Amino acid sequence: MDEEPDAGPAGVDRATPDERNRLQFAALPYRVAAEGGLEILLITSRSTRRWIIPKGWPMGKRPAHKVAAQEAAEEAGVEGKIGKRAIGSYHYDKVLSTGAVARCRVEVYALEVRRQNSAWPERKRRERRWMDVAEAAALIDDVELAPLIRGFAPPGG
């Protein structure tokens, strides 16, 4: 995967002590359509089938942007150029396997999709769909993520 130049410390260094245990990293997969419009790739969650972006928990000392890229590959089957600097963050309430609810902070990294695989690890558990920015923002339930998507502009573009 291609990466942008290093732009700062891993995401866990920016989190408060309370958030550190509930921090996740996400990719915002995007592409420029043939007619020039921006498209966002959303996937469905495994349990509730809501439209979301690929995200996951920190992986040891692995940099945040690399975690986000790996989650996009596993959950959505896409690869490309991942930004090293978060484009924003949002919070959501995650229901844990115990039934408890944890407030999570998610740092979002732009992923310019350059390859879409027909086979990927979670293809049987999720649906994926390209859509324009307005539709993606409308389908996202997370109140803090929708404006991030609406205001997204590709780096350098």
Key words describing this protein structure:
157 residues; alpha+beta; eight-stranded mixed sheet; 4 helices; 35% strand; disordered N terminus
Describe, in plain words, how this protein is organized in 3D.
- This protein has 157 residues and is α+β, with helices and mostly antiparallel strands.
- The two termini are 20 Å apart.
- The model is unreliable at 1-20 (pLDDT under 50).
- Strands 1, 2, 3, 4, 5, 6, 7 and 8 form an eight-stranded mixed beta sheet that branches.
- It contains four helices and eight strands, in the order αββββαββββαα.
Quick overview of this protein structure:
With 157 residues, the chain is of the alpha+beta class. Helices cover 19% and strands 35% of the residues.
Q: What percent of residues are in strands? A: 35-45%
Total helical elements? 4
What is the 3D shape?
Answer: globular
Please report the total strand number as a whole number: 8
- Assembly type of the chains comes to single chain
Uncertain runs with pLDDT below 50, 5 residues or more? Answer: 1-20
Strand-pairing-aware structural class: alpha+beta
Q: Describe the main β-sheet briefly.
A: 8 strands, mixed
Helix content: 10-25%
Mean pLDDT: 86
Alpha-carbon Rg, integer: 15 Å
SSE pattern? HEEEEHEEEEHH
Intertermini distance:
20 Å
